[in-house]
Structure of Synaptotagmin-17:
Amino acid sequence: MGIFCKFPTNEVELGELLLSLNYLPSAGRLNVDIIRAKQLLQTDMCQGSDPFVKVQLVTGLKLMKTKKTSCMRGTIDPCYNESFSFRVPQEELCEVSLVFTVYGHNVKSSNDFVGRIVIGQFSSGPQETTHWRRLLGSQRTPVEQWHSLRSRAECDRVSPASLEVT
C-alpha cells in the first residue's frame, strides 16, 4: 500500500491582492482602488519580481476597457495605492465583471502571468462573490477586501469573463 499525500486545493500560493471597490450611482462610476499585494509568486529568480496589475472591465461577455498599474521594481509585496474609475450605468452594474491579473514585468519576453481573480457577474470564487455583494449592498461606500490569486486555468474554468481577456 502506497503513501498518499494530501495537497491543499491551491497547490501553489500565487499571492494576495488588496482591493477596494465602490459604486457611485448618481455619476454612474465604478471606482477601483488597487491598494497592495503580498507574497506574490516570484517570476524572475535572478532579478526579483517587477509586478503590475491589469484590471479589465467586462460587460456581459464583452471586454470594454483595460487599465493597468505602474510596475513596482524588485518586490513581491508591492504597494500600489492606484485608483481607476470606469463608467458603468446603474442598469448595467449587474452584468459587469472586473478581471484583475497580476503579471511580472519581463523585458526579454512577454510578461509573466502571476495570478488572477474575477469579481462581479462571473466571479471566480466565494471571496470574490462576497466582495461584489458587499459592494452592491453599500453603494457610495468603499468596500475593501483581500483576495487570494488563482491560476489562469482555474479562472477560465469557473468564470466566462476570464476567457474574454488576455
Observations:
- The chain has three helices and eight strands.
- Strands lie at 16-24, 29-38, 51-59, 62-68, 79-87, 96-104, 112-120, 143-148.
- The radius of gyration is 16 Å.
- The CA atoms of residues 52 and 71 lie 5 Å apart.
